[in-house]
Design the sequence.
């Protein structure tokens, strides 16, 4: 998809990766970027092409209203997400529900709502932020990984159906990104701007899936034998961290 002249909607656009998507879209010549956030006043408007939009991806009524209002969108960037750190046996159910509602059902609902808009506007594209934990689940990110695995599976199915209306679908995988969600995580991190750049490079190149960093590429290549190549190391790390 050609980004020059595109009209984009970015969710979770007030910080982190979402803010970087807004900046990179403008740099590539997007004609307008709707910047979605629960509190639209938190969106930094540094360019007249940025239009703040109140949007909670867990609110079906608001999703429907936004899709009815923004009839010129040609590119949807599903970026909004939440994460909690807890193991499979200690994860609060409220946390798991919040992650599923935001990271999975939010993407499903928003994509379904905007698919007709994209179709009318020639097809366009959907870019969805996934994660390396779509593929491999560290115990400390158990419920978050479950939500990302769910949206990865759904994205792969949606790509087939949306292709029939000439809508491209790009799934973006990455390890830890240097945002406020990963404060306190002692692991190598990718800059948010790097993620946005790689994702939009992939979109312009016609890629179905983008692995931003070496970590995500290595994990994807090991999935054919993940129980021997990936999970023993995760178990070693988990046991080493126990008191």
Sequence:
């Amino acid at each position: 998809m050609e980004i020059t002249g595109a009209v984009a909607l970015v969710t979770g656009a007030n910080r982190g990766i979402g803010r970087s998507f807004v900046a990179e879209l403008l740099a590539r010549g997007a004609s307008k970027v709707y910047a979605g956030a629960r509190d639209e006043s938190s969106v930094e408007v540094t360019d007249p092409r940025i239009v703040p939009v109140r949007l909670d991806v867990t609110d079906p009524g608001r999703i429907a209203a936004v899709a009815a209002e923004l009839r010129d969108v040609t590119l949807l960037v599903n970026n909004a997400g939440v994460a909690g750190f807890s193991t499979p046996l200690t994860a609060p159910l409220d946390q798991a529900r919040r992650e599923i509602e935001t990271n999975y059902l939010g993407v499903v609902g928003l994509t379904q709502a905007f698919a007709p808009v994209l179709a009318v506007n020639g097809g366009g594209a959907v870019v969805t932020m996934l994660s390396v934990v779509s593929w491999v689940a560290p115990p400390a990110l158990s419920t978050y990984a479950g939500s990302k695995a769910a949206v990865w599976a759904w994205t792969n199915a949606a790509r087939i159906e949306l292709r029939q209306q000439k809508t491209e679908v790009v799934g973006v995988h990455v390890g830890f990104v240097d945002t406020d969600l990963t404060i306190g995580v002692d692991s190598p991190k990718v800059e948010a701007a790097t993620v946005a750049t790689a994702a939009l490079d992939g979109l312009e190149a016609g890629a179905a899936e983008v692995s931003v960093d070496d970590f995500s590429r290595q994990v994807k290549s090991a999935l054919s034998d993940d129980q021997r190549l990936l999970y023993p190391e995760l178990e070693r790390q988990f046991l080493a961290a126990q008191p």
